[in-house]
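COMPLEX REQUEST
Ligand: flavin-adenine dinucleotide
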Amino acid sequence: MPVNAYLIDELRKILGERVSVSPSELYCYSSDASQIRGLPDYVLRPLNTEEVSRIVRLAYENEIPVTVRGAGTGLAGGAVPVKGGFVLDMSGMDRIVELDIDDIQVVVEPGVIQDKLNEVLKPLGFFFPPNPGSSAMCTIGGMIAYNASGMRCVKYGTTRHYVRDLEVVLADGRVIHTGSKMLKSAAGYDLTQLLIGSEGTLGIITQASLKIVPLPKTRKLVMAAFESAEFAGKAVVKTFSSGVVPSACEILDRTSLKVLKRYDPKLVLPSEGDVILFEVDGTENSAQEAAAQVMEVCSGLALSLKLAESEAEMAQIWAARRLVGAAISRLDPTKSRIYVGEDVGVPMKQIPKLLEKVQLISEEFDLPAMKYGHIGDGNLHVALFIDVLKEEEWTRLKAAADKIHRTAIELGGTVSSEHGVGAARGQYMELQWGPAFEVMRVIKKALDPKGILNPGKLGL
Ligand SMILES: Cc1cc2nc3c(=O)[nH]c(=O)nc-3n(C[C@H](O)[C@H](O)[C@H](O)COP(=O)(O)OP(=O)(O)OC[C@H]3O[C@@H](n4cnc5c(N)ncnc54)[C@H](O)[C@@H]3O)c2cc1C
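STATUS: Structure written out below.
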């Protein structure tokens, strides 16, 4: 789109100098953490709801695509303006508007960083549980739009379970509230839940009321290694069916373990096997009891079993788990990890099957694959590697990722458990949802008749 003097003039009336069409700046907004690319025509930096509303009204009148961006840490291209137009950088709307501890909730603007919110809540004895691995960077707006989660969701749920009300700018610039500060309401459609996970395709979130919860008093960590990933998967299923709900349940398969050991041989991890980290929390007594139960369930299946002896040892083990992303490069320096097929999920009892099938796919396409992630909620992160300079390896990679996505759907699961659909997985929406996808199209048409909000996403 050539720069339009009328639009520039109108945008400057709303935002002053917070409008850019400089090519270098446009380039900075042309990607997120995925492989998807798309250049915007205008970068806009609103600071309040009124400005967002006026920008969107202008876009509506002139039929210009609007893509919202939080921190750009998304792994599905959601914040990438694949159809050009306006990019709204929400990072300037980063105020914690209200700490309402009496009602056990907070009101925040969408640009607030997840970790910053928890830093403020910690001294008050509370926390906001959804914790993506990117929590040091990602925004609450991006988390709501993707229904992000992370390690703790196995016990505490996803972002969806913490949102009570959203202030939203609709496609024509109108501003609505979707809920209230109430714990419950039986009056009408639940627009809050509709907006969560809608990836900026139905409205722009300008404020959110979030439930918070008390910090647990104690955490305990059990580390178990198994002779195969299937055995590890079985131990997870048995643990949950025994009645324990861990506060985190993470898998590091043997390849992940190997690269972590290569990265730092001194890491406090088992020497062999496929590893599961079970964390439990609660009071000293309840956490102790739950940890003992996990040890008992795993004892017949595991090669090795260890209860972390101190807070410090537990912190070291979690630090090792967090290194997995960085350590991946040690697998083979000639290959790069590509984020495709990386976020599938299946119902709990299908976990062993998924692990087995992913291994077979990796062998069939002759691609190394690391498997790690939030196995306790059925979510497996598959890391596939290729030499990016070899076109033939890209072809095999795409075919393997396609098979992984289809396998997850066949097992009754999802192509994305937490990273979202964006511009990366839209082709599977029909297959996963069947006729329900048509209902999604109708909703999109009703709320965004001109199709200006984040076009090219969600397979819509
Ligand atoms: C190292 C790493 C680890 C990660 N670990 C996890 C993990 O454990 N769990 C997990 O769930 N994700 C994870 N992610 C993915 C990502 O960080 C999360 O999805 C995060 O919530 C995205 O937030 P963001 O602010 O970066 O959003 P962006 O990437 O900027 O945007 C994400 C989507 O939200 C939309 N959006 C943003 N703000 C708004 C708004 N105000 N109104 C409407 N729509 C909006 C965008 O248009 C886009 O569709 C990880 C990413 C990285 C790089």
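REMARKS: The pocket of flavin-adenine dinucleotide is lined by residues 32-33, 67-75, 78-79, 90, 110, 132-134, 138-139, 141-143, 145-146, 148-150, 199-200, 204-205, 325, 418-419, 422, 454 (CB under 6 Å). The mean pLDDT is 95.
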